[in-house]
Design brief:
The protein is built from eight helices and nine strands. The strands form two sheets. The protein has a seven-stranded parallel sheet with strand order 1-2-3-4-5-6-7, covered by helices on one side. The chain is globular, with a radius of gyration of 17 Å. The chain is of the alpha/beta class and about 220 residues long. Helix 6 (about 145-155) links the parallel strand 5 and strand 6. Helix 1 (about 1-10) runs parallel beside helix 8 (about 205-220). The protein starts with a helix and ends with a helix.
């Protein structure tokens, strides 16, 4: 349903995930297949669990398996990322992934914004052949990370601006050189008050998505 709403509102592609309420987890292959069948390019988040981006060896093997499943199900790219406990890029994870999957199939996700040095981290993922990254420039919101985003774009990284993107940020983000903007456009929908279960859902809001589409379309004229 969310993919259909995004398409109707004018989205050019979607990043698919499950469990949006915890920041997103890897979607199931069936969810990817059903979304791909609608005709919109799909990128799939690979995140095997909620919480931090520090993965042990077993989790890294699961990470690889999920990435392969997503691509087999029809995702055009997978959105990945991992850090060491020193908040450096987890080169071991990237080496494992790139040993089985071409680097051009990867987008590095917003774990990049947690890196201790975001510019050095950007250079490192480019060295791996990963040309795209989802980022707010290391700031709480993309509109506050313009200086870093500009520098990351100057390095040759295809930055997809994500994280607290506002309508009023669109032009400045475009001027900084971003390849695209990434927005969730969700609203909280409380089906009923329940003392036992949280009955909230977070569907895509058509009106919000349409407003963002119009803002990007005007900037691209």
């Amino acid at each position: 349903v969310d993919v259909a709403v995004a398409m109707e509102a004018g989205a050019d592609r979607v990043e698919l995930c499950s469990h949006w309420e915890c920041g997103g987890l890897t979607p199931t292959p069936s969810l990817i297949r059903s979304s791909v069948s609608m005709g919109l390019p799909v990128r799939a988040l690979v995140r095997p669990r909620a919480g931090n981006f520090y993965y042990n060896n077993s989790e890294k093997q699961l990470f690889l398996a999920e990435a392969l499943d997503c691509l087999d199900a029809g995702a055009e790219m997978v959105v990945v990322g991992g850090l060491t406990k020193d908040d450096e890029i987890d080169e071991g994870l990237l080496e494992l992934l790139c040993s089985k999957i071409p680097a051009e199939k990867f987008v590095f996700h917003r774990a990049l914004d947690r890196a201790s040095d975001i510019i050095h981290a950007s250079e490192l993922i480019l060295d791996f052949g990963i040309a795209s990254a989802l980022s707010s420039g290391g700031a709480p919101a993309a509109g506050l990370g313009l200086d870093n985003i500009n520098e990351m774009c100057s390095l040759g990284l295809n930055v997809i601006a994500g994280g607290g993107v506002r309508i009023e940020d669109i032009v400045k983000l475009g001027e900084a050189g971003v390849e695209a903007v990434h927005v969730s456009c969700r609203k909280k929908d409380i089906y009923s008050e329940d003392e036992i279960f949280d009955m909230s859902t977070y569907p895509v809001d058509f009106e919000k998505a349409s407003v963002f589409y119009d803002a990007v379309a005007k900037w691209n004229l």
